[in-house]
Amino acid sequence: MFLIYCPYCEEERAEEEFHASGEAHIVRPTDPESLSDEAWGDYVFFRKNPRGNHHELWQHTTGCRKFFYMTRDTATYEIKEIYKVGEQPKVATAPAVPNKYDQFSSEQAVKK
Amino acid sequence: MSQPNRIQGNNASAQSRVDVSKPITFSFNNKPYTGYAGDTIASALLANDVDVVGRSFKYGRPRGIVAAGAEEPNAILQLGKTEATQVPNIRATQQLIYEGLECHSTNGWPSTERDVMGVVGKLFGRFMPPGFYYKTFMAPSKLWMTYEKMIRKGAGLGRSPKAVDPDTYETINQHADVLVVGGGPAGITAALNAARTGARVILADEQNEFGGNLLSQTDLLDGAPAQDWIDNSIDELATADNVTLLINATVNGYHDHNFLTIHERCTDQSFDLAPEGEIRQRMHRVRAKQVILATGAHERPLVFGNNDIPGCMLASAVSTYINRYNVVPGKKLLLMTSNDNAYNTAFDWHNSGRLVRAIIDTRPAAGKTVVKKATDAGIEIIYSSAIVQAQGNTCISNAMVAPLDETGEKLSGSVKQYDCDTIATSSGWNPAVHLSCHTGGRPTWREDIQGFVPDNFNKNMIATGAGNGLYPLTEILQDAASAGAFAANACGFNATKTSYAKAAVEDVAPSMPIFHIPHFKPTSRAPKQFVDFQLDVTAAGIELAVQEGFESIEHVKRYTALGFGTDQGKLSNINGMAIAAKKLGKTIPETGTTVFRPNYTPVTFGAISGRNVNEFFDIERYSALHTWHVENGAEFEDVGQWKRPWYFPKGEESMHEAVNRECLATRNGVGIIDASTLGKIDIQGPDAREFLNRVYTNAWSKLPVGRCRYGLMCGEDGMVFDDGVTSCISDNHFIMTTTSGGAAHVFNWLEIWHQTEWPELEVYFNSVTDQWATLSISGPKARLLLGELTDIDLNPDTFKFMDLREGVVAGVPARVFRISFTGEQSYEINVQANYALAVWEKLFEHGAKYDITPYGTETMHVLRAEKGFIIVGQDTDGSMTPYDLDMGWAVSPAKEFSFLGKRSLAREDTVKENRKQLVGLKTTDAKTVAPEGSQIVLDPNQKIPMTMVGHVTSSYYSAVLERSIAMAVIKGGLDKMGDKVYMPQADGTTIEAEICSPVFYDPKGERQNVK
Amino acid sequence: MMELNPKDTSIQRCLSMHHVSQKHPAESVHYSLQEMALGHLMVRIPETNTDAIKAIKSVIGLDLPTQPLSSVENNHFVINWIAPDEFLILTADKTEHALEAKLREEMSGHFAIVDVSGGQTVLSLSGERAEKILKKSSTYDVHISNFPIGKVVTTVFAKSQLVMRRTGADSFQLVVRRSFSDYIWQWIVDAGSRA
């Protein structure tokens, strides 16, 4: 049961007041019609799942109901920073680690 | 003689916590015994010279009490006077006796005394090493279930009650600056120092009183009996406003960010069933800024042959029984130790007036202080020796002692026999690190104390006292005082000095690292040397596991079941690791570290549920008309958290009879339904229309004031996830409706897009689901009825279908929407919820002459299905696009903004042939109602596995059409009108149906425009 | 926008807690629980619309609270901070329509006002057991050092949520949505029945 700082209420609250909403900073393409099925599919279906620092979107659902961002280490659960919508993170995400499963990247899967 | 082991007269312990003026009668295995207030079941049984308290799990060997606290592995009992109050797996060492208490051993068939498995274990024990179930019963696999039944009868620990828990439990949330876990010398000292700064302090201890190890030993504090210091300290803490003291309260779980759960046993120590109005247990959910772990340490036994015969005990436990409970567990003690501290047990035994046969010290020498005391008491010390084997059956008759070489790994001489009835051993102490591991801490090995201590990955946690590997009392007190001050200062308080009691400094010789006593036979052939008593894991078993290739301690644990019992290996983990390490040729820290998960001791489910049971099990949401529905006989259905009327049976009507009546009444007269539960979202702002255009599939720019429109909402994947009617109240003001169950989700959907993607749009959303009650009347008489009660002009040519009007209904200001989910002429009357009942009752008063009929969700489902209207979540499942639903009319591709989901409607996968499409079905036998969920096939004679082309989503009997109707999703269904399809049923029959339009009734939609 | 209260005051009005408070009366010497009849307006104003923010002051006589989780009050009104751009204004029973009309007259630019007087209610909880009842219900730290008089928070309560404000050493106001009223009232009465 984490303690999470809400940047709008400006105090820490119990995790049960919040809801995690997945990867942060997913920007909607401005011209969806110009995208290929693959590219559109990347936007709709594919999300990062790093081991390490991850930027996440959270909502203070039973509080002020505002959305905010959290940089959190997915392995240790440590919350590195919290920032409002419109702000940028100071902590970088975990770097992509090349691994033997790269052959199953989304591009190649669709090509099949 | 009653209580032969209770110490009498001058030898009685001066610090006994048992009250001999209050005798208590209880029963164990159906025999009555007497003890005193303050006794645990264990101390009372020992007082009564009871040797056998159970039979071991696998080998069925007789077992006795080993310890005095949470670490007890053998005295696991079933407690409870009635079926409903049965509690399995209590530790006799942690349960106080109360008048009339009933407890039983948990295994032993047919009885603990005469146990069949015990005989099997004796005869075949050597054929039952770890993994023997797997190895022996692998084949033939068919016979496993037979073997399993037999094994199950002979094994097991306790049973669950078969009746509903009659007790009440509660949860309370606590916040503290400093939580101190453990109320012994360290915990009390830390709490005093923290509390004196003004910090909010919680001090919790699992026992029935504070004092911890001070209650078991005879130390003086500030020159006086320790009990004086305990009493004064607790007085000070109890009267402080900023301190909460919790007793009988086990800190069981240490969760993220210093959130801990404490289970307080309020009445368990005094009653079988809590008295009326009292709660049995309370769970404290604590958030602390700083946590001080003062959890103490558990003594380790030494591992030797037959070390499980009743009478083999931990040295400190024997001292506890003598000093705290005034009970000597036997007549003749043989003590084996690797350290100075356990010598105190021999002195306590001697002072009780009973015989100490000898002290067997595995070391070549001991500390001056203890040697002098032993000499003064005339107690023989035998150095460089060990007990290699105990002898006896249900109690010890004698022990075999042999000299040890200086490594402790080999015997260096021949065996001598010593008669005794109690063997107390000590291999040293294990700090109780369990809580520090719960959120991922990995304890660190300390070579100097031969034990693990908590690591410091949690910056807001401090370990002190024996729980951090500090054993001399002087060091414990000083360190704990600093910990208390430090913790308070970390919370912003200002401790400038610390204070703590004074204890004697002792001249202590180093202890010897030794865990497993060698035998004159190899381990695999020696009499069983038990490491984990509860699960019958022996030294030979561990060595065998390593031999078989299990090198990781985690694998050894799982293969042998070491540490898997309800005691979580409190006495066995370190000894087991030491034996595995030696066999692997590694050190203990190289072998690994064992970690622990919540809970520290077993917790009853009631304490976890708290008050969230029965009427509070889940939220029940009610509309403003709920009481009327109840008073008028409604049966209810759960829609999300709402209780909605399902149907209103009259007299002895079945559901079908009621629904048929309600449907006909609505189509022929006037029906009324409470539609208040639908989500309603108020949308205001100059960009409201633009926002609606983006989230709905259809167009909103030109919707005039006073008009409503049905909208479909899709996810970015193009799949329908909600629908509803949205109305234009004024140019910048709309009210959106959603499904009852989807309201919260849609609200968050709007917010997430507005806040994270389009914050530049000037629009606000507010929930008004509860603000407005919706009373919906439907049927050819609806307009007549409403006309009697409103000032609104109901001329259908001017107040058209999908218009809305503001006015007064039954004297109450209202918005009336001419929208229909039934296909009949309908008016949804919205009033402020506080006046809903007044308007509803007026409608009934005037509606009586039209035979106004209340209906519920079942009738609503039938009526809308007759018209082919979808219900999102019933006819859709997140995989249907608007086109799949044959609702392309609700999609406006010409809208400038690429609305949410639009691009996905053009994906290769969503435009392909043969997608599941929504159609109607008419069964060939008109009276047959196809079950919802029936799978659909094209060829009823196809061999299994049959090709399934879809399923039935909605299916009802239609009273007005006098036949069944259904909606289904079928691959390519829209091109298959008129085709026959088949639905094989579980009972072997097949239902035949024809694909048709889902608009079964009034296909031209004329009935909603009745003049 | 419509006046939603009928002109005819003889028409029966059932507040949110009407039925449940009769079925499960809160009769205790240790605490008192009462429903208050008030007008409720949800007001949304972006932080940038300084004109609208000033208009509040001119109509209500109170500065909009900009400090998170704070409230302001005078004899007629309470303004509760709910979010940076969201405020709950409580006013005397049945005066919400007149208040909304005045506010709409004075406010300009982008804002929203929604009358929710029928959709939620205020419970007054006070007495020696009041704080303990809150501790049994919410993970929020309600000790006066963290929850002083005038602080208002939206938080979890039992399995639901509500808005709570401290009005005195032993007194609180809880804002509860209508459809959760029965659950919340019964929960409080149950929690208050034990020490």
UniProtKB/TrEMBL annotation, chain A:
| Entry superkingdom | Bacteria
GO terms under biological process: tetrahydrofolate metabolic process
Q: Which residues form a coiled coil?
A: none
InterPro entries referenced in this protein's UniProt entry, alphabetically: SoxD, SoxD_sf
Q: Give GO terms: molecular function aspect only.
A: sarcosine oxidase activity
What is the residue range of the signal peptide feature? none
NCBIfam families linked to this entry = soxD
Task: Identify this protein by name.
Answer: Sarcosine oxidase subunit delta
* Organism in which the protein naturally occurs: Cocleimonas flava
TrEMBL record, chain B:
Which UniProt keywords are given for this protein, alphabetically ordered?
Aminotransferase, Oxidoreductase, Transferase
Q: Which InterPro entries match?
A: 2Fe-2S-bd_N, BFD-like_2Fe2S-bd_dom_sf, FAD/NAD-bd_sf, FAD/NAD-binding_dom, GcvT/YgfZ/DmdA, GcvT/YgfZ_C, GcvT_C, GCVT_N
UniProt domain SoxA A3: residue ranges:
527-609
Q: Which residues form the GCVT N-terminal domain?
A: 625-894
Q: Which domain of life is it from?
A: Bacteria
By its UniProt entry, which Gene3D superfamilies does this protein fall under?
2Fe-2S iron-sulphur cluster binding domain, sarcosine oxidase, alpha subunit, N-terminal domain, BFD-like [2Fe-2S]-binding domain, FAD/NAD(P)-binding domain, Probable tRNA modification gtpase trme, domain 1
- Domain (FAD/NAD(P)-binding) spans 177-436
- One of its Pfam families is Pyr_redox_2
This entry's Gene Ontology molecular function terms read: sarcosine oxidase activity; transaminase activity
Q: What range(s) does the Aminomethyltransferase C-terminal domain occupy?
A: 916-1002
Give the record's GO biological process terms.
Answer: tetrahydrofolate metabolic process
Family statement: Belongs to the GcvT family.
- Protein name per the record: Sarcosine oxidase subunit alpha
Per the UniProt record, the source organism is: Cocleimonas flava
UniProtKB/TrEMBL annotation, chain C:
Question: What Gene3D superfamilies is this protein classified in?
Answer: Heterotetrameric sarcosine oxidase, Probable tRNA modification gtpase trme, domain 1
* Origin superkingdom: Bacteria
Protein name as it appears in the record: Sarcosine oxidase subunit gamma
